[in-house]
Amino acid sequence: MNFLAHIYLSGDNDLVKIGNFMADAIQGNKIDHFPPNVQKGILLHRAIDSHTDAHPIFRQGTKRLHKHYHHYSGVIMDMFYDHLLAKNWNRYCNMPLPQYAAAFYKSLDDNYDILAPRTQRMMVHLKKEDWLSKYATIEGISFILMQMDYRTKHKSGMTNAGVQLQEYYTEYEQEFFAFFEDMQKFVTDKKTELGI
After folding, report:
1. How far is CA 172 from CA 2, 139, 165, in A?
2. pLDDT value at position 96?
3. Which positions make up the signal peptide (predicted)?
4. Are 168 and 64 a contacting pair, CB within 8 Å?
């Protein structure tokens, strides 16, 4: 899953959210220079990624994409699932998505000094283009896929992935609901283990 799902699954602690959000920008196991709750967020992110990559429902979705996008299929599935979470946001959260996104952007600003350098650079675009709210529409997710394709120097072909999303929309959405229910249970247990 991508940014929105990782942030949402973190719960209410801003530092856990930040750690989970920026975990991909942190290499290796040397994370003890971050505040304890940021460290927990990083560990939670890694557990979520491992569980997602091995999950049979997620793997079923990537199979539909593999012939077009090869090893980028998992990244695209992460984006599809963030779109489906955003589209169905009211099913999972009482706070409207634009308000939730704005609160998270503020927490990034408030904690700027503890962010990884890569995260500091990326958050400018995230906030300016309001990626978290944009995930909710086909047009918005297509724009973000195009941006990500640009970052791969157009090697990924992700610009075109909206076609597959629309072609198999019903299947992806039903799979997402089942997957996310399982993921929430997994995260509840993991957060207890991590003391979150």
Report:
1. 15, 17, 7
2. 97
3. none
4. yes
Ranges in the chain, pLDDT < 70: none
Q: On the CB side of 71, how many CA atoms lie within 13 Å of its CA? A: 2
Measured CA to CA in angstroms, residue 165 lies from 12, 22, 39, 107, 171 at distances of: 31, 26, 34, 32, 9
CA dihedral sign, ordered 58, 59, 64, 67: positive
Q: Angle at the Cα of 174 (from 169 to 176), degrees rounded to 5?
A: 95
Overall domain count for the chain: 1
Rg of the chain taking only CA atoms, in angstroms: 16
Please write the tens of the pLDDT for every residue from 30-49: 899 999 999 999 999 999 99
What is the tens place of the pLDDT at every residue in 102-133? Answer: 999 999 999 999 999 999 998 998 999 999 99
| DSSP states of 45-63 | HHHHHHHHHH-HHHHHHHH
DSSP secondary structure letters along 130-150 = THHHHTTSHHHHHHHHHHHHH
Pair of tokens at residue 24? 């991909």
Range of the domain at 54: 3-194
User: Rounded to whole angstroms, how far apart are CA atoms 111 and 34?
Assistant: 12
State the amino acid at position 110 in one-letter form. D
The counts of H helices and E strands in the chain are: 11, 0
